[in-house]
Design a protein that fits this description.
The chain is built from 18 helices and 16 strands. It has about 500 residues and is an alpha/beta fold. It is globular.
């Protein structure tokens, strides 16, 4: 279908009860994704009476299915994304059409995005420097810190190896020959700040808002790179869910270097699903137009992943090394087996080659199916892109002291304060985003690395999970003990 109209676009759910349609949509997409590979699980989705409670079980099952065989991983990704395109509606004024019938190229000239530019005035940082607890680590000091994190199970070995390659090749930092588009440019763990400090050429995409863009301009001016961003009707920024056809055209127009699309934009609830879907259309369009385009994403620490047997073994080893404290933990688990000190890994998952995997599950109980689907859509796109031979940088991020968390003063903040007692490190955002940006740089220069047999493995290698994966207990079952421990410590500190 060609141009559907003129004016403001919008990406909307199909008709249905306003308070239920988002949940109905997520259930239908998940059922479509898994139907060919587990008909019983798909039927349980279609007939469940409480999807907001049952979705958790289904996303776990979907993750287990995907690691079983590459054809399942690729097939579910394709079916899920196809279902999203078929059910979402592209609305312009009074005209509404299914998203998969709309010609994106025909829509691009309905709104023309202009370009603004800010060049940094600083000298580019010529080596990898990591801010950490008031220090600036580089060279041997940084290698020692990375080794400590690896020894304590905070960072996976492949992640550490990637960062060490960047230490050895500081000329990579400015990403010569690449142009990175960062959607969700203001995201705290996104790569915008480090890339600009290193002298990279960056396209920034984020929602309109004077305060937001004043901050981004200040970051660019303090850096050494070049920041370009879209301008609509004289104002910087665009809403991806309402401007993705024009945005795809704008990014393509700036692709005189090798394009890299970074998907870092997120929103809560149903809006997050629409944003993830619009971002996926953006990704598919750019990858189709540019055979050499690369994709970069961050995985949330609050999701479910298949992890290698070595990670499961490390978690079990820690279980046997608890000493006297282990007796108390076991007693509490017997009192409340579902909520306290529940094992991180129980039954192994086997792939078609006989390899054993563990299922890490940290999906938040209260976030709901829209959150889970918004996390899964970019993972499906990463699977499709990797399966097609594209360069894909996907890194599971660590827990971090983001602004939203530091504004809180409740049980979750108290739990984070006590996380180190359970072998988990909560990172400062400046430390985390520098590490994650360096991992991106390494991945873009690692095209000679052997490719993995199952695209699902890209989520398990090179993770920076902060210790969550190698923890012997499921993270949700540590929230109450950690919150209590953190609260008591804070009270004692105040008394002293």
């Amino acid at each position: 279908m060609g141009k559907v109209g003129a004016g403001v676009w919008d990406l909307v759910f199909p008709p249905g009860p306003p308070d239920l349609i988002a949940d109905m949509f997520s259930a239908a997409v998940v059922a479509d994704a898994i139907r060919s590979y587990d008909a019983d699980l798909a039927q349980s989705v279609e007939t469940c009476r409480d999807w907001r409670r049952d979705y958790h079980r289904v996303f776990r099952g979907m993750t287990a299915l995907a690691i079983g065989a590459p054809e399942i991983s690729l097939g579910m990704a394709a079916a899920g994304l196809r279902s999203v395109r078929h059910m979402l509606r592209f609305a312009v004024g009074r005209t509404v059409a299914a998203l998969d019938t709309v010609d994106m190229d025909a829509q691009a000239d309905a709104v023309v995005l202009e370009t603004a530019e800010v060049a940094g005035g600083a000298a580019p940082v010529k080596r990898l420097e990591l801010p950490w607890r008031g220090l600036l680590l580089a060279e041997d000091a940084l290698r020692l810190r990375l080794a400590e994190w690896q020894t304590h199970g905070i960072l996976e070995a492949d992640f550490v190896a990637a960062i060490e390659r960047v230490i050895d090749h500081p000329e990579w930092l400015a990403l010569p020959g690449f142009r990175v588009t960062v959607t969700g440019a203001g995201a705290e763990l996104g790569p915008l700040r480090p890339l600009l400090a290193w002298g990279a050429d960056v396209l920034a995409v984020d929602r309109p808002g004077r305060a937001r863009w004043d901050r981004l301009r200040s970051v660019a001016q303090a850096g050494a790179g070049v920041l370009r961003f879209p301008v609509s009707e004289g104002e910087p920024g665009v809403d991806i869910a309402r401007s993705f056809p024009a945005l795809a055209h704008w990014i393509t127009a700036h692709s005189d270097a090798r394009p890299v699309l970074g998907l870092y934009a997120e929103l809560p609830g149903a809006a997050g699903v629409r944003l993830a879907a619009a971002s996926d259309v953006l990704a598919e369009t750019l990858l189709r137009r540019h055979p050499d385009a690369a994709l970069t994403l961050l995985g949330s620490p609050t999701d479910t992943y298949a992890v290698p047997a070595s990670v499961v073994a490390a978690a079990r080893d820690r279980l046997t090394m608890r000493g006297f404290r282990g007796n108390a933990q076991d007693l509490l688990h017997r009192v409340a087996p579902n909520s306290l000190y529940r094992l991180n890994y129980t039954r192994p998952i086997f792939d078609t080659d006989g390899g054993a995997w563990g299922l890490f599950d940290n999906l938040p109980a209260l976030s709901g199916p829209n959150y889970a689907l918004a996390q899964r859509l970019p993972r499906w796109r990463a699977v499709e892109a990797y399966g097609a031979g594209r360069t894909v940088s996907f890194t599971v991020a660590p827990p971090a002291w983001t602004r939203s968390l530091t504004r809180e003063n409740g049980w979750r903040t108290a739990a984070y304060r006590a996380a180190s007692r359970f072998g988990i490190e909560v990172f400062d955002p400046a430390t985390a985003r520098t590490l994650l940006a360096a991992k991106l740089v390494a991945d873009l220069h690692a095209e000679t690395e052997p490719r993995m047999s199952n695209p699902e493995m890209i989520f398990a290698t090179g993770a920076a999970h902060g210790g969550l994966w190698r923890q012997p207990f499921a993270p949700r079952s540590l929230l109450a003990p950690a919150a209590l421990s953190g609260t008591v410590s804070e009270l004692l500190h105040k008394l002293q």
